[in-house]
Amino acid sequence: MVGSARRFLILGLDGGTFDLLDPLMRAGELPFLSSLARRGFRAPLRSVYPAKTIPAWFSFATGQDPGELGIFGFTEPGEAPGRSRTVRSFRPVEAFWDRLSRVGVKVGVLNFPMAEGYPVHGFIVPGMFADGRATYPSGIRSEVRSAIGSEYPCELPLFRQAERGEWVAHATRDVAQRAQVAVALARRHRPDFLFALFRETDRVEHQLWGELSRPVNEIPADLLEFWRTIDRSCASVDEAFRAGGDRAVTLVISDHGHGPIESDFLTNRWLAEERLLVFRNESELARRRLLARMLLRAQRLPFGRRATRWLADYLRDSRHAQLAELVSSDSSFERVAPRIDWRKTVAFSYPVPEGIYLNPFNPDLTPERREEVVRDIRARLERFPEAHIEVFTPPELYQGRNLGHAPALLIRVDEMRTEPRMDFGYPNPLIRERPGFFYGSGTHRMDGILLGAGDGIPAGAVPASPTLLDLAPTILEGMGVAPSSRMVGRSFARDVGLAA
């Protein structure tokens, strides 16, 4: 160890929000998380925008915002019209644990969303995009198997209402196994910095927000057990980490918050209505919209919502992909792209649903014309009468200037209570009454969670308006390592007693 010799454990609860945690903590269901807040501090943690898993966790890891990373979602534009590619790593940009590793700090990283591990002074077990790919070092994989008797858990499968109970049990089991792996590796390798992420919290909140947001005594027993498992898992990892040395600090963080979905804004439907997105032939989309209108009307009939929920389960079976594409087109941009008139289209929303991109294949969009178009689209969106739409240009959101893959505009609808979607196939751009075949009842919010306690942190310490970008410089300073000058955030180490 170097500098102050303070060790750091970071526990990530993807999508964690005090809107759910506070009632559970008051009810005594989360004793470990409650003890952190009591012994140290708690604060809302402001995310980056879009407040999505990949740009948010990558910004946390690097201390650089999406505008510097050039990463704004899970995917980025490809070379051909209507094509995209998955963003699988923040590299070659340096993570703050790389900086720690270079100065001799042993680090451990578990379940961070990236395709594969890479050399560090310590170990990396990748998550989300890993698909069984390499850990670093390679021998860590056998240690994982020894700890849990199987491979490291993958992402949860698609949710189907008919399999709700099994799916929640699967999520709970995965959380427990991730904790077992973290405990085993912490005890064996004794890292001085350890990051462990539980992605299941976000997945459960997306699908079952309506059940989780009830009064605590009305939350289903299996969901209460899921959150108790989260709390016990955090406690067990904390205990194993603290056994590895003195002067330890534990932070529990999330990449963004969560809240209910109230409605959906279909950005491409709006662009088509405004004649900014043009099709060669509208007849196929007209048929699809007629079917969608019938399905939406069915929601108002007795048992109609239950029937369309059954339909959604049925369509989630891969054997029914063609029928699913006919009914729900939220992922169909690439299929529809060949029917778009790319020489006439001005703008489209793909692959980041919060983004509006100007069409690079329209010969009339000169640089001067592009500026005029951006102003015009912004003005039209801000005048949209049925929802409150905030519109931003990338320089208004980001300090970084690596904006080659950035949308021309980013939108936030009804303070994120309305979710932007890339659909074409519905009658109107705004769907206020969400149909039963739109999966999920929760979506992201800007404010996540920050809980912290440990050596040097006084009870009741208050970090001043912390953001996700502030964490990297804070952790580095708390461990006695100088932050990189490229980091955007401000260290709040002094606010909470962590400054050397």
Explain what you see.
A hairpin with a 6-residue loop joins strand 11 (347-348) and strand 12 (355-358). The chain is 37% helix and 17% strand. The chain has 500 residues and is α/β, with parallel strands linked by helices. It has a 7-stranded mixed beta sheet with strand order 2-18-8-1-7-5-6, sandwiched between helices. It has a 4-stranded antiparallel beta sheet with strand order 11-12-14-13. A 3-stranded mixed beta sheet has the order 15-10-16. The model has no long low-confidence stretch (mean pLDDT 91). The two termini are 14 Å apart.
As a percent range, the share of strand residues is 15-25%
The helix content, as a percent range, equals 25-40%
| Rg over alpha carbons | 23 Å
CATH class of the largest domain: Alpha Beta
Strand order of the largest sheet: 2-18-8-1-7-5-6
Q: Which CATH architecture of the largest domain would you pick? A: 3-Layer(aba) Sandwich
Please count the helical segments: 17
Instruction: Please mark out the parts with pLDDT under 50 across 5 or more consecutive residues, or reply none.
Output: none
What is the residue-averaged pLDDT?
91
Shape annotation: globular
Structural class: alpha/beta
Largest sheet: 7 strands, mixed
Going by CATH, what is the homologous superfamily of the largest domain? Alkaline Phosphatase, subunit A
Number of domains: 2
Number of strands: 18
What is the fold named in CATH at topology level of the largest domain? Alkaline Phosphatase, subunit A
Q: What is the first-to-last residue Cα distance? A: 14 Å
